[in-house]
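Example for tutorial group B:
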């Protein structure tokens, strides 16, 4: 029992929140399981991602500014080196493709919900105007049962703030929590459904407010489902270095499109006014 909870600790925390409102008559049991799982797994990765803020590929010159906001995935928790974080990989990929250096600033905070985006923005200098901002958030909203409408309202407000600063915005929607393989069915299916519902609402709201959107469950989720040992870090919840590599590669086309470097976008990428689903 203890070993199983150690492997699935974070996952059970997720479904403990999701399943509490489900029609399985097991709310009390799930809440107890979640608390037990949190105690069992602890925080093997800590709460501090590698510090990746720097001037990447400085020799390229003509610098542009990249801002990353959101939760632990945006912050890069699970990566062992700065260059392996989501921000580090996006900065290097953008620099190589655009032929320009990139100054990375990470305002993302481990454990953040969408409601905390405002504080992340408030932490920035009022004069700071990034060329492009990337937001990845939503997983903690699902686990903490934040109403979808409330979550997307905070996301929309953050997009509005950034666009008022003159930034292009790229939103990576909530990952599919159904990729957490240690979670038994039907709880895994509940997690998947809740996260996908939030992701779709994020997609619609972000597009309406002028952001570009990358549907992470579609463009990178299958890799986490089919190859979890490689894609997840030791806590089986956050991406590994390889997981961040895949995620950054999946998001890069929309970042480059926001900067005017490319025009054609692959499946799962959405631009304001274009429409489409998925």
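The residue assignment follows.
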């Amino acid at each position: 029992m203890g070993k199983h909870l150690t492997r699935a600790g974070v996952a059970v925390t997720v479904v403990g929140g999701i399943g509490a409102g489900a029609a399985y008559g097991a709310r009390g049991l799930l809440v107890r399981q979640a608390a037990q799982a949190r105690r069992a797994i602890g925080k093997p990765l800590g709460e501090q991602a590698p510090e990746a803020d720097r001037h990447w590929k400085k020799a390229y010159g003509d610098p542009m500014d990249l801002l990353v906001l959101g939760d632990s995935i945006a912050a890069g928790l699970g990566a062992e080196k700065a260059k392996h974080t989501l921000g580090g990989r996006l900065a290097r990929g953008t620099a190589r493709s655009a032929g320009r250096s990139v100054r990375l600033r990470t305002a993302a905070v481990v454990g953040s919900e969408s409601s905390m985006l405002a504080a992340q923005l408030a932490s920035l200098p009022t004069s700071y105007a990034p060329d492009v901002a990337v937001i990845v958030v939503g997983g903690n909203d699902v686990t903490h049962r934040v109403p979808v409408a409330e979550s997307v309202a905070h996301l929309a407000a953050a997009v509005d703030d950034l666009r008022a600063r003159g930034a292009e915005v790229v939103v990576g929607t909530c990952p599919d929590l159904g990729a957490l393989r240690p979670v038994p069915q039907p709880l895994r299916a509940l997690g998947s459904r809740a996260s996908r519902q939030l992701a779709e609402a994020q997609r619609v709201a972000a597009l309406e407010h002028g952001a570009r959107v990358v549907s992470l469950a579609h463009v990178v989720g299958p890799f986490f489902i089919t190859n979890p040992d490689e894609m997840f870090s030791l806590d089986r919840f956050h991406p590994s270095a390889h997981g961040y590599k895949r995620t950054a590669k999946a998001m890069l086309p929309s970042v480059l499109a926001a900067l005017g470097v490319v025009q054609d976008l692959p499946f799962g990428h959405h631009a304001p006014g274009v429409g489409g689903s998925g």
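Strands lie at 55-56, 64-70, 102-106, 132-136, 168-172, 212-214, 269-270. Compare this with the pattern of hydrophobic and polar residues in the output above.
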